[in-house]
Amino acid sequence: MTKFTEIQELLQQKADCNARLQLIPYEGSPEIKENKGNKYLYVRKRIGGKLTSTYVDVYSEELHQLLLKTTKDARDLRKKIRLIDKKLNELGYEGNELSARVMQNLEFARANMKANIYDQAVLEGVATSFPQTEEIIENGKVNGMTASDVQKILNLKHAWEFILDPDVVQSDSNYYLLCHVAKLINEGFYMDGGRIRSIPVTIGGSSYIPTIPIEADVKEKIEDIKRVEGDEINVAIELCLYCMKTQIFKDGNKRASVIFANHYLIAQGQGFLVIPEKDVPEFKKLLVAYYEGRDEVIIKEFMKEKCWKTF
Is the pTM of this model over 0.70? Predict the structure, then answer.
């Protein structure tokens, strides 16, 4: 493994650890408090030198064990991050400072992340409301939704946290990063969710049948798209649509494609790309036409006009 490749791999691992930390809703040491014969669970955490105590819920042994586990998970993740930082220092890695525009873009994307995840969930047919999505993002759970749909939303959060990591945003938007995003998207559903598809698939509502993708061809096509001169938004849209149509992975292709395109766009400081809830029906119609080789210009103009948000 070359030094550059090793550094890129370590940076992805570090960003993944940081993203996983963001998924832990209650980080701190669990404590049990009693009041009038009832027991309640809190978590203690030191913030800025001050010890805080946050209420979680009424005590149950199951919840208590879960909090103990998340505390251990957080400790293990922070230990892993320290080891990664040590290896990066040994390799002589020094992160480049991001431009003011890209830093603003990261803040812009983070401020809109809940809405973006909700819109993506709607595109995937997840039966959720915005308040439910917000509750899942903040606390990792919600009543009235299937475990599968909750997992999809948590995976979207994980993938967004990953691409919004300052180290990752400096990485190349290449095939390997796309595969890692797909792995995060499919976590809990497929063991090999980030591996290129080797089985045939069909697309509901369309006569289009994607061929089995070839890794070398996918790598080359992604690089070809990025080499085309023009506005960054046009490149991002091409990346998004190509990855969707190719159906590179067994599942989660629309989710992975949108987030991958956003990694490229945010790294250029050019806003973000997401299909708004109200425009999902129209987008799906245009996408089917695009799959079948019709109206390619129309869907690209639609995405540029309706799905591109900048500042």
Answer: yes
